[in-house]
Amino acid sequence: MKMLVVEDDFGSRRVMQKLLEPYGDVDVVVDGEEAVDAFKLAWEDSRPYDIIFMDIMMLRWTGTRRSSVCARLSARWESSRPTRRR
Question: Which of 1, 4, 30, 54 has its CA 20 to 30 A from that of 64?
Answer without folding.
Answer: 1
